[in-house]
Design goal:
Belongs to the glycosyl hydrolase 43 family. Keywords: Glycosidase, Hydrolase. This is Family 43 glycosylhydrolase. The protein is built from five helices and 42 strands. It is mainly beta.
Length: 595
């Protein structure tokens, strides 16, 4: 297992650095309680029982009890704002309790909480039972809504809340001994990557729900933050790590997708768990409490168990259709009725970024079982102009199409430049001849043939040019297709497919952070005419990135998939997503289908 995840973040495609590990036997996460809650908190008591609380009606603090995290009894009201509240009812604004957390510290139960109008408070249990009664310890802070307790190994207790604020408490835990301070994280220092907080010069872990955990001498500060991965309403859980409780803390990273505000606790089986309420429409347990086992995939690198699927929908549960490594997969059909698959391979050096100069081809008659056809091109053996530009050229993102009685394959080079090869036998396996260089810069080239037989070269972020009849170059000056409002559809991997009489322009884009914790999604726009105007861009396939759409033998719209971000269902394997395409108020709506 790699150990440099914190200090030297890898490319997000790598499985060992993933937030969601892939398992063939993984199952969809389920709610543990059929009650709509927010801010779920769980702790273990000295009686070998689990205790759960969370935001309910704002007027009462309620607790549920379980012996196994599955069957829960309750709720029992342990404290009432109306009957027992004091200072809380004197605050200005709408009074109400939110974000309670339950803790067992120094031989008794404590409940931290916030008020809807702002401010945090603390209750101390006056008996050995979690049911109370509870003594009101008063207001702890005038700001914040989501407080937590943390007891360090030396017995010191800390008040942790909001976006990572922390203050040591006095010895009898009746108040704060110092002014709260906010911990800061290190910014990303890797070229081409943008982490949202550091990009806007706000070096925070998240925006709310701070929770502190310690393991092997390291402090883990968790916070919730709305990242807009997949362009969605997800609220994720981030973490940063430090050897000092006050920091400095490491760069932050996404620890639990859709987790929002969480608490961590050790189960009776010595397994570390996170309790949370599903946040966002992609969460299978949205608005409901759940529990996920957490694991350490490397030093200071925490993530959910790979045995649970944390994202609902056809993509969240997607499985690879083949076990070989590939990026940028492309599927097309031949005159023989076969499907042909190609893409960026790691051959010959088992590396996608270093001298991977071979072009391989696979075939299938059912999109399920794939057989290797041949290595159809090798820059070290067949390359011409490519080897005059780069000392060790890498071949990226090939795409195949059947035109004019034979097969053609476009490809691009690491560093820029695109080319085209042609099968001289009329067969997919070749042999192929070099048709030369198509563009001097840019990557990710594709070919599209319209109904009138005209062929177009499409590349990078929506650039397009009609090809000459002999396919030796462009018959017109290139232009760029833009969505309404002047926006590009994506930044790379552009392609066009025609479906239901409409032109679909697709491309890959990073949503949320760029090559950090964001998602590499497949976006699209639609037009009645090839050159537009195109509709506003929309999301077609979450995590789909540089996939490409194709039409199967039954006339269904499909998309390839390979996974290229930390929360994809898998990485660098080929998947196939069935798409639905129906008209709605904004035009043709394309989205994954669960058929």
């Amino acid at each position: 297992m790699k150990s440099e995840f914190i200090m030297q973040p890898p490319h997000p495609e790598t499985e060992w650095s993933a937030c969601t590990g892939y398992s063939e036997s993984a199952v969809l996460i389920e709610r543990i309680l059929d009650v709509s809650l927010k801010d779920t908190s769980i702790c273990t008591g000295p009686d070998h029982m689990y205790y759960l609380t969370g935001t309910t009606d704002g007027s009462n603090l309620q607790v549920w009890t379980s012996a196994d995290l599955k069957a829960w009894t309750g709720p029992a009201t342990v404290w009432s704002l109306e009957q027992e509240g004091t200072w809380q009812k004197d605050s200005e604004g709408s009074s109400g309790i939110c974000a309670p957390e339950i803790h067992y510290v120094k031989g008794t139960f404590w409940i931290t909480y916030g008020l809807n109008q702002g401010g945090t408070g603390l209750l101390r249990c006056s008996s050995a039972s979690v049911m109370g009664p509870y003594q009101d310890m008063g207001k702890m802070t005038a700001d914040g809504q989501d407080a937590s307790l943390f007891e360090d190994e030396d017995g010191a207790v800390y008040w942790v809340y909001s976006n990572g604020k922390i203050a040591r408490m006095n010895e009898d835990i009746t108040g704060l001994e110092e002014t709260p301070r906010m911990v800061e994280v290190e910014p990303w220092k890797v070229a081409g990557r943008e982490d949202h907080p550091s990009y806007i010069r706000n070096l925070q872990i998240g925006t709310y729900g701070a929770f502190l955990y310690k393991r092997d001498g390291y402090y883990y500060m968790f916070c919730a933050d709305a990242l807009e991965r997949m362009g969605s309403d997800a609220v994720d859980t981030f973490v940063a790590v430090s050897q000092s409780i006050y920091g400095p803390y490491s760069r932050r990273y996404l620890a639990l997708p859709h987790g929002g505000q969480i608490s961590l606790f050790t189960g009776l089986d010595n397994q570390l768990y996170a309790s949370f309420t599903g946040c966002g429409s992609y969460s299978p347990v949205e608005h409901y409490p759940s529990v996920v086992p957490m694991s350490f995939a490397g030093p200071r690198f925490i993530r959910p168990s790979e045995e649970l699927v944390l994202e609902k929908g056809a993509v969240g549960s997607l499985k690879p259709v083949a076990d070989f490594l590939i990026r940028d997969p492309h599927i097309s059909t031949g005159p023989d009725g076969m499907y042909y698959l190609t893409g960026t391979t790691d051959k010959p050096h088992r590396n996608f970024w270093d001298r991977n100069n071979q072009l391989h081809l696979w075939s299938s008659n059912d999109l399920k079982e794939w057989n290797h056809v041949a290595k159809v091109w090798d820059l070290s053996e067949n390359g011409t102009w490519e080897n005059n530009i780069y000392e060790n050229p890498c071949l990226w993102a090939p795409e195949m199409i059947y035109l004019y009685g034979t097969f053609w394959i476009t490809y691009s080079l690491k560093g820029g430049g695109t080319g085209l090869i042609k099968s001289v036998s009329g067969h997919a396996e070749g042999p192929y001849i070099d048709m030369g260089r198509m563009t001097n810069t840019d990557i990710d080239s594709s070919l599209f043939q319209d109904d009138d037989g005209q062929v177009y070269f499409v590349w990078q972020d929506g650039k397009i040019a009609r090809m000459k009849k002999d396919m030796t170059g462009f018959a017109e000056d290139p232009r760029k297709l833009l969505c309404s409002g002047g926006h590009r559809v994506g930044y790379e991997g552009a392609f066009i497919v025609k479906y239901k009489g409409k032109y679909i322009l697709g491309a890959a884009e990073w949503n949320g952070d760029k090559r950090v914790d964001g998602t590499y999604d497949l976006m699209y726009a639609v037009a009645e005419d090839l050159y537009g105007p195109y509709t506003p861009r929309r999301l077609a396939v979450p995590h789909g990135g540089h996939g490409t759409m194709f039409i199967d033998h039954d006339g269904r719209l499909m998309s390839t998939f390979f996974g290229n971000d930390r929360t994809a269902p898998f990485r660098t394997r080929v998947g196939i997503v069935l798409l639905g395409a129906e008209e709605d108020g904004e035009g043709l709506c394309i989205e994954p289908s669960c058929e």
